[in-house]
C-alpha cells in the first residue's frame, strides 16, 4: 500500500508498504529517518517516541497506515540546521547522553512535557518520563536536562 | 560494493584536557537523531537476515529441511551448519559454540538456520518454515546437579565434564574456628544487561572475496578472529568497522549475529543487515551468571575477621563464554575488600542447559559482593556492632595482602569511602503532607503511609580493573599531528569500542593535554589499526588511554626535535621551553610535516593463579566503591521504594569528572535493578520473560536521587593515576539496598532480586 505522511513539515510518500509495518519501520527503513529508535518495538521503552499530530506516541505501536494523512514530528525535526532545540541543547550541556540510544525518544517526550508544563515538579517530570527507559545514566542527568530545558521555556 | 551510511570521524574542539569535562564529540549528533547506530545502517541493495532458534533447551537434531523456507518469494538464501565454510565453532576463551547447531542444541534460543530476504518479515516467516526434527532431551538445569557423576555430560570434549573451571584459593594456615561464626547461603538471579540498542549490523561483500562488517561490539579484533575462523578466511579479508553502539555492559563481548550476517552476505553477494528484536535479544547474548554462594565468616569478639570460607557455584549455561574468567574473579575477590588471615574459597563455573552466561558489568565480583556484604551485616549483628564499624575495622588498605597473596600496592581507601557515605545527612523523613509518588507503590495508591517502614543499609565492594591472570592485555593507538586549514590538528585512531562510556571524549582530552592542540579528530574505530582490547573490565581509560598518551609522547618528542633549541613542551598551539615561554608557533614548526606514531601499550603484567593454592599477582589494579541506601518498604505488601542511593568511589584521577559521575550513577542503577526487580526467569531451561514487559529495568520512577562523592587517590602504576570507574558502583549498590530492606523488615533476604513475597512471607 501507499502511505502519505507529513513529516517534520514535509510531505513524504512511501510505496509498497506491507500493512504490518509500523510507523517506526516506515520512518527508519523507508523514509531515511532513523533518528527514532527501535530498542524494543514492544511499546515498553519509549525510544521510538514521536509526535503524531500533537501527541507523543510510541511509533512502534502505530501501524503505518494509521499515520496516513497525518503529521509526524520526529527528533530530526526539532532543531534547525544551525541550531539545536533548547531541549536538545540541555541534554548536551548536562551530560545526559551516554550511549544515546534512549536520547531521541526522551528528547521528544521531554519536549512535549516542558512545553505543556514548564513548571513541572520533579515528581511530575518523573511521571511524565516513566515510559522512557535509559540503561546508561540512572536518569539523574536526564532530570538535570529536563529541569534546565524547562527553565529555558519559562524564560 | 559501497559502504552503508555510517558514522564518520568525530571532531572535538576547544580546551578540555585531562581533568576537564568537555562536551562529548558525538553529543550533538546523538541529540539530533543523526548518530548512526548499528541498527540504522542502510544500503540500497541490502537484504535482511533472520535466525531460526531452538525452542528446546536440550535436543538432538535428527533432520533439517529448508525447502519450504527457500520457496518463500523474496528469500535469497537459507543456510544451516552445512554452509559454514570454516570451523563451525567459536567462543571468546574456549571455542565450544557452533555458529549454527549441527546435531544437538544446548539451550533454548540456539541458532539453527539463517535466512536472507528482501524484507525482515519475509525473512522471519521463512525462517519459521525451516523444518527441524528434534529428539527432545531432558535439560540439565541445576548447576549443582550438573557436577554430580550421574549428570549427562553436555560437552563430551571438555576434560572436566560439566565443570568449566574450579578456582581454588587457599590462604593462611590459621584455625577455621572462631568465637563468633556466621554462615549463610545466598542466591543471585540471572540478570540481563538490557542495553537499549539491539544486536545489529551489516555485512557487505567486497571485491577481493572478503567482506566489511559494520557492527556494534565491544572488541573488534576478538570478533574478527572468531569470524575469520568460522568463514575459513584470512583475517585480513575480514574488515570490521565499529557502528554506533547503543550500550553494551558485557553483552556485546561475545558474537551474536556477526558470523550469520557474513555468511548470508557471502552467499548472496549482497549487503545483509540483521537487527534483533527485543525478544530475540534476550536469546542473542549471554547474561550475568546466576549463583549460589555459601559463606562462613569467623571473627573475634572484638570484630576482627579470623577466617573466611566460601563455596560458590556459577551457572555458566550452555556454552563457556567467559565463565572461566568470571569464576576466577568471584574467587579472587570473594572475601571482599577485607583482610582475613585465613581464606578458603572454592568457586565452580558449570555447564548446564540454561541460557549461556558470560560478561556483565561487575563480572563475578557482583555475585560475591552480595554474599560477603550480607555476611558482614550478619557479623555486625552477631557482634552488636554497627555495620559500618565492622567493615571499617576489617577493611583492606594499601599494603594489605589479598587472599591471593597479592599486596595491594596503591591506595585502597575503603574505610574513607564508607565514612563518606555514612556521614552524609540522611534524606528527610516523610512529612505530614506528601506526594503519593514518594511512597512504595506510588500512584497505584496502595498506601498512604501505613505499614511503611524506613531502613538504611551499607555496602562496599572490590573490583579488579583490566584483564587479569596473566592475560596479555594491550591497546594500540595511532596518533598523527599535522597542519590542516592553517591549524594544527591531531587525529587519533584506535580500534577501541565507544559503547556510551565516553572514550571518544577522553581520547581527545588526552591528545589535547599531551600535544597542546585545540582541534582533535577521533577517527572511526576499525580493524585497520591494531587491537585495543575489549571495552570491558573498566579498562579502556587505563589501557587505550595509556596507548593514546604513549603515542602522543612519541609525536611530541618528534615535534620538539623538529623545533630544536630549548623546545621542551607543547601548549596552546605553541612550542614552549621548560619555563613555558613561547618559542615558536606549532604551525610554523610543523610546516608540511606529518608526524605520526603507532604504539602498542601494555599495563604491567599479571600472573596466572597457582592452580592449587590460588596464589599469584593476578590483578593489575583494584577499585572500590561504597553505597548507602535508604529505602521505604511497605511491609504489608512487600513493595520497596529506594529513597536515596549515595555512593562514594575512588577513581584515582577523575579524567572527566562529569563522565565519572555518569558512570557511577548508571552503575548504581543497574545494581538497584538486581536488588529489587531484574531477573531472567528460567524454568526448565526455558526463559519465561524475554520482553521489557516482563523483564523490568529501573525507570525514572524507580531511581532515587544519587548523591556522589568522588575521591582521587592516584595509582602510581596507572596513566595519570586513574582507576577504572565503570564497574565498582554496580557491585555495592545491590547489597546496600538489600541491607536497607532487611533493616526495615527484619527479614533475612538471602536472594536477589528481592521479591514482594520474600518481604511478606515467613
Ligand atoms: S521501540 Fe517503541 S516503545 Fe520501545
Ligand atoms: S544513554 Fe544509553 S540508554 Fe540512555
Automatic annotation (TrEMBL), chain A:
Residues 1-78 form the 2Fe-2S ferredoxin-type domain. It holds the Pfam family Fer2_2. Gene3D superfamilies: 3.10.20.30, [2Fe-2S]-binding domain. Keywords: 2Fe-2S, Iron, Iron-sulfur, Metal-binding, Oxidoreductase. This is (2Fe-2S)-binding protein. The keyword Ligase does not apply. It comes from Actinophytocola xinjiangensis. The lineage of its organism: Bacteria, Bacillati, Actinomycetota, Actinomycetes, Pseudonocardiales. It comes from the Bacteria. The keyword Oxidoreductase applies. GO terms for molecular function: 2 iron, 2 sulfur cluster binding; metal ion binding; oxidoreductase activity.
Amino acid at each position: 500500500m501507499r502511505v502519505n505522511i507529513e513529516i517534520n513539515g514535509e510531505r513524504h510518500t512511501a510505496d509498497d508498504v506491507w500493512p504490518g509495518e509500523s510507523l517506526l519501520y516506515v520512518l527508519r527503513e523507508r523514509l531515511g529517518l532513523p533518528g527514532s529508535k527501535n530498542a524494543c518495538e514492544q511499546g515498553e521503552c519509549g525510544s521510538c517516541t514521536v509526535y503524531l499530530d500533537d501527541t507523543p506516541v510510541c511509533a512502534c505501536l502505530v501501524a503505518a497506515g494509521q499515520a496516513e494523512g497525518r503529521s509526524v514530528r520526529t527528533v530530526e525535526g526539532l532543531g534547525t540546521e544551525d541550531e539545536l532545540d533548547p531541549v536538545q541543547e540541555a541534554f548536551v550541556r548536562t551530560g545526559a547522553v551516554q550511549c544515546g540510544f534512549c536520547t531521541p525518544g526522551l528528547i521528544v517526550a521531554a519536549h512535549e512535557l516542558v512545553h505543556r508544563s514548564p513548571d513541572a515538579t520533579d515528581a511530575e517530570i518523573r511521571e511524565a518520563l516513566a515510559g522512557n527507559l535509559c540503561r546508561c545514566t540512572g536518569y539523574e542527568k536526564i532530570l538535570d536536562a529536563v529541569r534546565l530545558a524547562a527553565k529555558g521555556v519559562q524564560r | 560494493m559501497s559502504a552503508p551510511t555510517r558514522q564518520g570521524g568525530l571532531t572535538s574542539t576547544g580546551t578540555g584536557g585531562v581533568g576537564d569535562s568537555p562536551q562529548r564529540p558525538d553529543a550533538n549528533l546523538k541529540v539530533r537523531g543523526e548518530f548512526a547506530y548499528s541498527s540504522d545502517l542502510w544500503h540500497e541493495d541490502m537484504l535482511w537476515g533472520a535466525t531460526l532458534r531452538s525452542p528446546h533447551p536440550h535436543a538432538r537434531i535428527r533432520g533439517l529441511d529448508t525447502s519450504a523456507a527457500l520457496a518463500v518469494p523474496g528469500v535469497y538464501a537459507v543456510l544451516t551448519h552445512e554452509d559454514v565454510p570454516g570451523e563451525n565453532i567459536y567462543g571468546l576463551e574456549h571455542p565450544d559454540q557452533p555458529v549454527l547447531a549441527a546435531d544437538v542444541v544446548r539451550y533454548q534460543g540456539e541458532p539453527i538456520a539463517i535466512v536472507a530476504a528482501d524484507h525482515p518479515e519475509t525473512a522471519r516467516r521463512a525462517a519459521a518454515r525451516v523444518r527441524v526434527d528434534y529428539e527432545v532431551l531432558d535439560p540439565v538445569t541445576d548447576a549443582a546437579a550438573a557436577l554430580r557423576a550421574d549428570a549427562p555430560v553436555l560437552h563430551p570434549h571438555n576434560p572436566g565434564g560439566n565443570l568449566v573451571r574450579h578456582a581454588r584459593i587457599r590462604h593462611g594456615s590459621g584455625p577455621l574456628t572462631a568465637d563468633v561464626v556466621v554462615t549463610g547461603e545466598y542466591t543471585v538471579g540471572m540478570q540481563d544487561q538490557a542495553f537499549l540498542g539491539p544486536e545489529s549490523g551489516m555485512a557487505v561483500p567486497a571485491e577481493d572475496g572478503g567482506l566489511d562488517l559494520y557492527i556494534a561490539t565491544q572488541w573488534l579484533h576478538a570478533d574478527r578472529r572468531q569470524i575469520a575462523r568460522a568463514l575459513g578466511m584470512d583475517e585480513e579479508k575480514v574488515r570490521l568497522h565499529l557502528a554506533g553502539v547503543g550500550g553494551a555492559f558485557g553483552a556485546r563481548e561475545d558474537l551474536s549475529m556477526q558470523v550469520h550476517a557474513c555468511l548470508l552476505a557471502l552467499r548472496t553477494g549482497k549487503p545483509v543487515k540483521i537487527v534483533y528484536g527485543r525478544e530475540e535479544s534476550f536469546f542473542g547474548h549471554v547474561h550475568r551468571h546466576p549463583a549460589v554462594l555459601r559463606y562462613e565468616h569467623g571473627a573475634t569478639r572484638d570484630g576482627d575477621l579470623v577466617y573466611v570460607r566460601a563455596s560458590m557455584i556459577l551457572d555458566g549455561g550452555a556454552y563457556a563464554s567467559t565463565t572461566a574468567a568470571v569464576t576466577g574473579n568471584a574467587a579472587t575477590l570473594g572475601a571482599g575488600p577485607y583482610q582475613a588471615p585465613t581464606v578458603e574459597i572454592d568457586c565452580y563455573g558449570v555447564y548446564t542447559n540454561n541460557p549461556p552466561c558470560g560478561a556483565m558489568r561487575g563480572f563475578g565480583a557482583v555475585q560475591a559482593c552480595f554474599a560477603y556484604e550480607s555476611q558482614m551485616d550478619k557479623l555486625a549483628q552477631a557482634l552488636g556492632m554497627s555495620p559500618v564499624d565492622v567493615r571499617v575495622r576489617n577493611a583492606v588498605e594499601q599494603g594489605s595482602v589479598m587472599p591471593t597473596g597479592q599486596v595491594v600496592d596503591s591506595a585502597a581507601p575503603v574505610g574513607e569511602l564508607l565514612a563518606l557515605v555514612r556521614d552524609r545527612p540522611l534524606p528527610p523523613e516523610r512529612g505530614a503532607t506528601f506526594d503519593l509518588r514518594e511512597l512504595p507503590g506510588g500512584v497505584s495508591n496502595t498506601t498512604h503511609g501505613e505499614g511503611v517502614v524506613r531502613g538504611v543499609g551499607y555496602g562496599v565492594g572490590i573490583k579488579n580493573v583490566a584483564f587479569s591472570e596473566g592475560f596479555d592485555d594491550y591497546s594500540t593507538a595511532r596518533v598523527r599531528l599535522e597542519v590542516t586549514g592553517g591549524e594544527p590538528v591531531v587525529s587519533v585512531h584506535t580500534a577501541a569500542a565507544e559503547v556510551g562510556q565516553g572514550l571518544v571524549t577522553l581520547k581527545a582530552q588526552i591528545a589535547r593535554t599531551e600535544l597542546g592542540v585545540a582541534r582533535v579528530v577521533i577517527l572511526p574505530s576499525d580493524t585497520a589499526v591494531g587491537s585495543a582490547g575489549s571495552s570491558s573490565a573498566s579498562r579502556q581509560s587505563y589501557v587505550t588511554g595509556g596507548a593514546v598518551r604513549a603515542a602522543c609522547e612519541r609525536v611530541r618528542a618528534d615535534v620538539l626535535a623538529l623545533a630544536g633549541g630549548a623546545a621542551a613542551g607543547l601548549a596552546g598551539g605553541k612550542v614552549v621551553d621548560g619555563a613555558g615561554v613561547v618559542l615558536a608557533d606549532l604551525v610554523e614548526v610543523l610546516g608540511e610535516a606529518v608526524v605520526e606514531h603507532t604504539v602498542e601499550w601494555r599495563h604491567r603484567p599479571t600472573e596466572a593463579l597457582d592452580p592449587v593454592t590460588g596464589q599469584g599477582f593476578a590483578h593489575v589494579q583494584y577499585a572500590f566503591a561504597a553505597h548507602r541506601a535508604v529505602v521505604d518498604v511497605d511491609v504489608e505488601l512487600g513493595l520497596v521504594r529506594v529513597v536515596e542511593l549515595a555512593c562514594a568511589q575512588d577513581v584515582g584521577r577523575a579524567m572527566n569528572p562529569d563522565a565519572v559521575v555518569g558512570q557511577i550513577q548508571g552503575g548504581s542503577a543497574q545494581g538497584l535493578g538486581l536488588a529489587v526487580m531484574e531477573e531472567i526467569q528460567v524454568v526448565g531451561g526455558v526463559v519465561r520473560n524475554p520482553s521489557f514487559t516482563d523483564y523490568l529495568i529501573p525507570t525514572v520512577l524507580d531511581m532515587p536521587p544519587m548523591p556522589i562523592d568522588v575521591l582521587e587517590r592516584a595509582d602510581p602504576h596507572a596513566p595519570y593515576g586513574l582507576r577504572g570507574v565503570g564497574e565498582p558502583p554496580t557491585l555495592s549498590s545491590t547489597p546496600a539496598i538489600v541491607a536497607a530492606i532487611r533493616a526495615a523488615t527484619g527479614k533475612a533476604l538471602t536472594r536477589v532480586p528481592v521479591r514482594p513475597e520474600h518481604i511478606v512471607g515467613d
